[in-house]
Task: structure prediction
Amino acid sequence: MTIQQHPHVTDREAHFVGGGIASLAGAAFLVRDGNMPGENIHVYEKLDVVGGAMDGAGDPDEAYLIRGGRMFNYPAYECTWDLFETIPSLEDDSRSVKDVMDEFNEAHPSYAKTRLMREGERIDAGEYGLTRQHRQSIVRLLLTPEPRLGDTRIEEWFDESFLETNFWYVWATIFAFQPWHSVAEVRRYMYRFLQEFPRLHTMEGIDRTKYNQYDSMILPLRRWLEDRGVSFEYGHEVTDMDIVPSRTGRTVEQLYCETDSGTETVPVEPSDLVFVTNGSMTDGSSIGGMDEAPELNETGASWELWKSIAEDNPQFGNPSVFADNVTETKWESFTVTLHNTELFDHIVDFTNEEPGNGLVTYLGSNWLLSTVVAAQPHFANQPDDVKVFWGYALFPDREGNYVEKPMSECTGREILQELCYHLQCEERLPEILDDVTCIPVMMPFITAHFQPREPGDRPDVVPDGSHNLAFLGQYAEQPRDVVFTVEYSVRSAMTAVYEMLDLDQEVPPVSKHYREPGVIADTVRAAYR
Result:
């Protein structure tokens, strides 16, 4: 048998399609662990900024914007900490990004006192309200092998009463699960985060970054890569690639990029490496304004590329399972910038939650509104006299309780009016909204990774027979790990790099806290609260 020989890593090129955290992590692992020169690495991004879903932009004059906020868990994010323990922070290059996070979370520990509210009253979210039948359904789910679950939906596995429990409201609004999502993904989450089951309502196990994740994680990682010569090709949308089959497998030989100057081709040698982020949770996002509702897009560049290359390569997965039903995969978020801090102060007083404590969900809301008031400042360039908070809703197509139309049709001003109704301060409109800006964002694919799916719908990180192509991100299959996390993207990048370079290093295994007797005992006790 002939063994394929590759040139030395210094003579190979690497091409990353998409500039999200998976690609940035992959580039870092190539440099740090694979000893590939940075100048051999190219990242193609259609926008003029990298970071993907880990975003954060704006200033106090034009208002701030984050599409979402990533939460972290120190017992579970093995690959993420492996990476960011070695990336210097921007504030002090003698300390790592993780060092800064550790310090911040020690000073600002999460402890939600008011996780759920209804009609202005705090609900004891620690009383999960699970019945014997609910507990039996959870145990049966944990004992059922994932392949046997297939594309079963949550609402098909649990009865309707389960979806009205405090446990479900806490679970659904932390992780963004909907009743029609995959019960197999719920099973993975329960195993991955069983150690958090007893304290989901307080969010004590959740850790955060000092600022938004773009300022705290993406910027220092990008600087580290740039300092090592990695090239970032902004305004480059990869629309297709030549994938040539042979008796031994498939090889990428060329990329096609759309730029402002037209179509560019990028030749790829057989020994070069191509890493593709197939699908994106924030692809197709539409930004509204204080007096403008966002639009709903039904496609995006990452999805079109994935569909194009999967058409003739079934082992590349089935993107339509995730991308073809935006009604089930969309929701809407909003970022509020306040020069007049009256509303900010009212939220803190009304919820009895200090900034940085947690997530408040308003159960009386038809939209199922939630707000997050982060520790201030939330942006590195945010002045002391400007405040910022973020919110989202899982049911944007329902009519509001106060504003008589769906959230998806609302301007930023109308979203704030609806929020003020649930905060019981609507009588102070419009003065409470004076000098306040709310920017809504519609994200058509934000929970696409939770769609019911069958084995094979997500491709392996390195598909069988692939000579130089690997997949990264939320839609590359990684047994036992959970999507909608930074960890999933970083783990996919580490897996891809180590396998493609055949490195004699192991990817940190997914922790098995669910096997610890203390974790099991605490979980059982919590299930009876």
The radius of gyration is 23 Å. The mean pLDDT is 96. The chain has 16 helices and 18 strands. The first helix runs from residue 21 to 32.
